[in-house]
Task: inverse folding
């Protein structure tokens, strides 16, 4: 069996994709909002300049298009709450993709990115975790469906997302205007009127609009994109790549407001979480009130189910972590690993692990 | 690949189907990425923020009797901004960023002129629309190009 065949036969937990599914629903609603606003006002896409992507794709009647948009919005809500999850995910993807293909004027790179993520979510049975579907099965005392499933759609999604970063970074790498910082510098100079009224001192605005700065920034940004696209694939660099991707997308959102791209791209980082659950143990000891609070916080923040949580007596250390390779950590080391695996605290604590991470050949291969 | 996962035995035909599907989807995406180097719109090629180019345009309608009338204040009950409700093409009379690159902007503008020319039935005077576009490609320029819509057949 070839390495590709072997990879495509892997099975693993669908938990991280379930988290992605919950996040991508509201992002889809955000994407559909301007179309829905038009629909509510009775304005169809054919009322303005439009250009079909595919000539044989039928021109939709206004009512059908409006209905399709509302269907997509409803499906996005159902997808997020996890009711009829598989169907809702497929319908959400179909509506977003179809609406994109209706007209070239609907094309945005971030919409294609969103469609790719929805495609991946639709291919996986993510409704088996964190969903009303799963809750209903428990309520009806029906056996739970396996949450360990074939992961080939996840590898496909990883491939597609990785290609997005590489295509973007690669195109900038071979464009001398981009790599040399000219494109960025020109944009900055043209937007100097935005900087001028800010409290920034004049000398800093001079620095921010000076050409030499962008001879450095151009290659740094291109290198960042390429590093994210490649680094996500390797265990040693994945943590750093995820962390850099978060900063990168926050910076894009602040500087450019690219519709839903930053939200979708940050949510999509969930796919790089190792698809296993409860493979680390957190043992909480110490005074009982504090221990209860720690257990509650870890449970609430552990969206990807990285930890099996146990309580020990008051005499035990306040926090002990047994890593997946059997390493036992106490005190700050344990705190650091817990906080670096909880999504909301990851951006602040992951950098503390990066130096050791980059040095170590991690056979466990986990990112978060 | 994460070693914590295991493999699921599946029939050979299904493994081949999955492999073909995965390779096919990725190949299509790579194809789009490569096609982006020749496609002015860079559809599905993921080349965002590709230029700092700027442009502005003077758009006129040329009437059957040869007059060249700016469309800035509307005509025959029509306004460009409501006919072409596309952020990339509105506000054409002032210099603005070509958000998808100058080639994509010119291609969109060319198509938009055609669309407007063929979707303004109350306009009985116009023969065709014409845009004189002045642009800078990543600070270089200015360059000027003239785009003309299809000729309208419904002479008033």
Result:
């Amino acid at each position: 069996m070839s390495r590709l065949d072997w990879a495509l036969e892997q099975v693993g937990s669908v938990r991280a994709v379930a988290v992605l599914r919950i996040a991508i629903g509201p992002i889809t609603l955000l994407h559909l909002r301007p179309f829905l606003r038009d629909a509510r006002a009775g304005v169809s896409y054919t009322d303005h300049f439009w250009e079909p992507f595919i000539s044989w794709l039928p021109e939709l009647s206004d009512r059908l298009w409006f209905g399709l948009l509302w269907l997509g919005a409803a499906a996005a809500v159902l997808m997020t709450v996890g009711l009829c999850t598989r169907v809702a995910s497929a319908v959400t993807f179909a509506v977003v993709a179809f609406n994109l293909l209706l007209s070239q004027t609907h094309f945005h790179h971030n919409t294609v990115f969103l469609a790719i993520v929805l495609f991946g979510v639709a291919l996986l049975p993510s409704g088996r975790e964190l969903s009303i579907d799963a809750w209903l099965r428990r309520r009806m005392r029906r056996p739970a469906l396996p949450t360990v499933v074939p992961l080939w759609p996840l590898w496909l999604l990883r491939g597609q997302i990785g290609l997005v970063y590489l295509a973007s970074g690669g195109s900038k790498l071979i464009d001398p205007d981009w790599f040399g910082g000219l494109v960025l510098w020109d944009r900055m100079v043209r937007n100097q009127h935005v900087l001028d009224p800010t409290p920034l001192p004049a000398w800093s605005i001079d620095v921010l609009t000076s050409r030499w700065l962008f001879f450095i920034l151009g290659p740094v940004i291109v290198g960042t994109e390429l590093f994210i696209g490649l680094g996500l694939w390797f265990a040693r660099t994945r943590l750093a790549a995820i962390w850099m991707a978060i900063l990168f997308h926050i910076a894009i959102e602040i500087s450019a407001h690219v519709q839903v791209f930053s939200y979708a791209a940050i949510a999509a980082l969930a796919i790089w979480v190792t698809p296993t659950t409860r493979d680390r143990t957190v043992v909480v000891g110490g005074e009982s009130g504090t221990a209860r609070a720690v257990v509650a916080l870890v449970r609430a923040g552990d969206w990807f189910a990285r930890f099996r949580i146990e309580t020990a007596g008051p005499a035990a250390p306040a926090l002990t972590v047994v890593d997946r390779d059997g390493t036992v950590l106490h005190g700050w080391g344990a705190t650091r690993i817990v906080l670096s695996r909880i999504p909301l605290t990851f951006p602040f604590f992951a950098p503390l692990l990066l130096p050791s991470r980059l040095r170590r050949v991690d056979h466990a291969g986990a990112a978060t | 690949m994460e070693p914590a996962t295991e493999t699921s035995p599946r029939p050979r035909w299904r493994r081949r189907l999955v492999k073909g599907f995965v390779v096919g989807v990725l190949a299509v995406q790579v194809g789009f990425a490569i096609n982006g180097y020749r496609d002015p719109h860079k559809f599905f090629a993921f080349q965002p923020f590709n230029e700092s180019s700027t442009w502005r345009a003077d758009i006129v309608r040329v009437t059957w009797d040869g007059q060249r009338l700016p469309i800035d204040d509307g005509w025959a009950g029509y306004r460009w901004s409501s006919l072409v409700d596309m952020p990339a093409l509105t506000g054409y009379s002032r210099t603005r960023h070509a958000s998808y690159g100058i080639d994509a902007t010119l291609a969109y503008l060319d198509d938009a002129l055609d669309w407007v020319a063929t979707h303004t039935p109350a306009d009985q005077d116009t023969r065709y629309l014409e845009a004189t576009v002045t642009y800078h490609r990543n600070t270089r320029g200015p360059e000027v190009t003239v785009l003309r819509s299809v000729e309208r057949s419904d002479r008033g």
In short: Confidence is low (pLDDT under 50) at residues 361-367 of chain A.
